[in-house]
Structure prediction request, 202 residues.
Amino acid sequence: MATKPLPHVAFIMGINTTNDAGRTNPDPQYFFYCKLSTARFLDIEAKIFTGTIIRKRKGYTRTKVLADGTTLGGKDAQVAEGRTTGHARAVPHGKNIKLVTGKKTQKGNYQTISFNFPTAVPTYAIGEALGELIPPGKIEATPGNTEIFPYFILPTGSRSGIMKQSAAQTSTNVEVPVTDAARRALIKKKGQDNDLQEGAGT
Prediction:
């Protein structure tokens, strides 16, 4: 039995894309995840997302023909305007990326920790998101027991670098807000009428 809790915890990120005027979701938001033990190791527990996004759904009328030819109309075709809440709690089956720590197992291998990112998140955005999220003092070229190497390993086995925090925070390509105000600003920017209820659950 584990001596400390081991649930998965979430972080939110936004990606700012270009040449996307025709896209329905030009600047997407994603949740990415790690185990609480990983957050403890990286000293990022205070940055965990625990809120609920409140979305405003616009009402509309639809016309739909069922399989037997029945056409919906009137109240059957009305979708009412309303507010919905949600936060994808389930860990996505996407990219499980590994970080290599400087701590060794009894067999002499380096221990690893991991994050789960949605498949749609590109590699460059992962490196920038991790650079924003992880304190720079936890990333070293020759890490000790409480630090990690400055790269991550993709499911394919290839490596990619973690961006330095100063560069990641200066860049506007990826946002990983870790305060209530910053998260609210990101959610409103991406979702217009969306809002955030902070601390509504984990």
Notes: The mean pLDDT is 82. The two ends are 22 Å apart (CA to CA). Residues 153 and 159 are 5 Å apart (CA to CA). The chain is about 20% helix and 30% strand.
